[in-house]
């Protein structure tokens, strides 16, 4: 991984040298980071596994402007984090005990209408909130405390055609057989509706943190988003697997949200998610089902200036499993936050308790009910 980061930065530094040969050099920087410490008590932890799951994280970064002239500017971000975990998630190998890696490491050349950024970066778009068919590089747990995507190593360019439309393309090394993930998307405002389309070639890769990393596919998608008192959106993706029969998979989400005039504003959001695939498309569902439907909702509301509560709810229409994820955020200071969070799951139907959203197994699987505290300090 360090070799890849060095490659990106050496390439960009060579380009900087070319630019600055005839231009004024201006460099500024600022430091930022965060410390995160949390622990959760697992109800009914499987035999042989610890009852508490804990994590400590320290992130340090520097960002700023590296160079600029009358037309162009070059800015950067370099941040890394170190995580130490303990408990059943480590014992079941759902995460590493120690993880030290770059979080962001990129350089961006920008003239206002055109931007190109290379290095480890976030490539995240679409209109979905809980379910993200167009989250091609999304690694977030949206119901987690301070959810963030890890980002990928790649090059992304964006060309703004107007104040409300742009074209964007990216190249991401697949890290397998020299292949490159390539994609392009466009976005525009048509009337009051935000419209986006995307196309991507996804070869087999070694990016194991991403869904479907080892499948060769052509992926096509779109999203629509608007508001008429009630917000609404639709985001969909069609995957064509590169086999002789070219089987397909279709994912789609429909969502609405509204803020009720209760207290300081009660925000409610709901999404319906559908995924279905043809018979010959690679089957990854652990229950062997080719069509899955889920409903997700969230509610959140501020209470004064220091407290905000939220709750996520997920329900699988196929296997009748559910999950509720409540959280209370308390702002101790402007930079120090305390989170009380939990997770409760179950299955409505009788019999086997082996749902997608809640499973009872002899090994810790990450869907168990819990309650925890997390402290996050930004600096």
How does this structure look, described?
With 379 residues, this protein is mainly beta. It contains 2 helices and 18 strands. The chain has helices spanning 2-20, 88-91; strands at 30-42, 52-68, 73-86, 98-110, 114-121, 152-162, 165-173, 180-190, 193-202, 217-228, 230-241, 248-260, 266-277, 291-303, 307-316, 321-331, 336-347, 370-378. It has an 18-stranded antiparallel barrel. A hairpin with a 4-residue loop joins strand 16 (321-331) and strand 17 (336-347). The two termini are 27 Å apart. The model has no long low-confidence stretch (mean pLDDT 92).
Major sheet attributes? 18 strands, antiparallel, barrel
Low-confidence parts, pLDDT < 50 over ≥5 residues?
none
| Number of separate strands | 18
Radius of gyration: 22 Å
Q: How many DSSP helices?
A: 2
Which structural class do the helices and strands define?
mainly beta
Shape type: globular
Q: What percentage of the residues does DSSP assign to strands (E)? A: over 45%
Helix content: under 10%
Distance between the termini: 27 Å
Order of helices and strands: HEEEHEEEEEEEEEEEEEEE
Mean of pLDDT? 92
Please identify the oligomeric state. Answer: single chain
